[in-house]
Amino acid sequence: MTAHLPAAPASAAEAARSWPGRAHQGDMAATEDDFAEFVRVALPGLMRYGHALTGNPHDAADLVQTVLEKVGARWAKVSQNCDDPRAYVRKAMANTHVSRWRRTRRETLIAEFPDVPAQPRHDRLEDEPVWQALQTLPPRQRAVVVLRFYEGLSEAEIADTLGVSCGTVKSQNSKAMATLRKRLGPLVEGGDV
């Protein structure tokens, strides 16, 4: 049985307007319903964003679940204090991903090789040159590129989402674009991408 996810709204502003329960902040059941509706509307876009950040759908699902659990516990406060809760969740996802990456990027040594090597599942995007080049970027640069070119956010919105200055967004985007041009140069010039 395949679950059908609703199409994501065209913009963050449309998504913010599309969930109805903001007026019911005081009622716990209404707040839970409000959060459930927010998740229903925002989930497809958050999963795509998480996939672009982490590089695979499994880690994306873990990232989205972790962040939504934290946000859900504070939903009344988040929805009351944030003009765009989707931007708040994206920022939390980016920060959580960077923190997780910093913790796990260290090499882990093991005493013995496992008896049976794990067979990784083939991701359909794995062989795409743009996807491969995007995966080589550091997490902060990847987040800026995804927010800028995939989500269509302005530099100011990206700065707000990631909690950095506009200058940092510009420099991270510039570095990422230089790296991507270097890696994809022959493909772009040949028209293969």
From TrEMBL:
Residues 42-106 form the RNA polymerase sigma-70 region domain. GO terms for molecular function: DNA binding; sigma factor activity. InterPro entries: RNA_pol_sigma-70-like (IPR039425), RNA_pol_sigma-70_dom (IPR014284), RNA_pol_sigma-E_actinobac (IPR014325), RNA_pol_sigma70_r2 (IPR007627), RNA_pol_sigma70_r4_t2 (IPR013249), RNA_pol_sigma_r2 (IPR013325), RNA_pol_sigma_r3/r4-like (IPR013324), WH-like_DNA-bd_sf (IPR036388). It holds the Pfam family Sigma70_r4_2. GO terms for biological process: DNA-templated transcription initiation. Residues 1-16 have a biased composition (Low complexity). Residues 1-26 are annotated as: Disordered. The keyword Endoplasmic reticulum does not apply. Residues 129-180 form the RNA polymerase sigma factor 70 region 4 type domain. It comes from the Bacteria. Keywords: DNA-binding, Sigma factor, Transcription, Transcription regulation. PANTHER family: ECF RNA POLYMERASE SIGMA FACTOR SIGM, RNA POLYMERASE ECF-TYPE SIGMA FACTO. Belongs to the sigma-70 factor family. ECF subfamily. This is RNA polymerase ECF sigma factor. It comes from Saccharopolyspora erythraea (strain ATCC 11635 / DSM 40517 / JCM 4748 / NBRC 13426 / NCIMB 8594 / NRRL 2338).
